[in-house]
Amino acid sequence: MSGPLLVLVGPMGVGKSTVGQLLAGRLGVGYRDTDDDIVAEQGRSIAEIFVDEGEPVFRAIEKAAVHRALGEHEGLLALGGGSILDADTRALLAGQRVVYLSMDVEEAVKRTGLNAARPLLAVNPRKQWRELMEARRHLYEEVATVVVATDGRTPEEVTEVVLDALELKQA
Q1: 138-147 burial by CB neighbour count: b if 16+ within 10 A, else e?
Q2: Which residues contact 91 (CB under 8 A, 6 or more apart)?
Q3: Quick one: CA dihedral 151, 153, 154, 158, positive or negative?
């Protein structure tokens, strides 16, 4: 299998970055987050790209960043929450080991406060989050090798569950 050892997908605020870094450390591999790649490449935040250019432009930038990372990175890769909306990206993920980190809306509120720094949640965040998840949950599940619920678990506990579920050897 070429590409990353492991890819994390899931909604914003689920802990992909935190758990991804813990997993990478435990597995002795590099960590990469496509949201970080986009910010570094664009020289501005994702929220700024959304405001300045709109979602379609951001999604095109995101698609390019994800496809590049899937081709280049061999360690642990975390994808932005909306990256699975693209059919080409989902097709590329079909040959990968993908973990969908899930959470319910109450957990999302606790973790993110559903704040305005997240452009898709700027108005009525709970309702927006529910609608986003209704539109995306089946796509996350479609690409996932395994689904790990993060509700009520620490990042360390989630890391253990992922390692156990995939029977991955630690470094």
Answers
A1: ebbeebbeeb
A2: none
A3: negative
Alpha helices, H only, the chain: 16-27, 34-42, 46-53, 55-72, 87-93, 105-112, 125-143, 155-166
Answer for the pair 143, 82: CB distance below 8 angstroms, yes or no. Answer: no
CB atoms within 10 A of CB 59: 17
- The rounded distance, in Å, linking the Cα atoms of 125 and 31 is 30
SS3 33: strand
* pLDDT tens by residue, 21-62: 999 999 999 999 999 999 999 999 998 998 899 999 999 999
Ramachandran assignment for 28, one of left (phi > 0), alpha (psi -120 to 50 degrees), beta (any other): left
pTM: predicted TM-score of the whole model, two decimal places = 0.87
Q: Is 113:105 a contact under the CB 8 Å cutoff?
A: no
C-alpha span between 138 and 66 (Å, rounded): 20
Radius of gyration of the chain (CA): 15
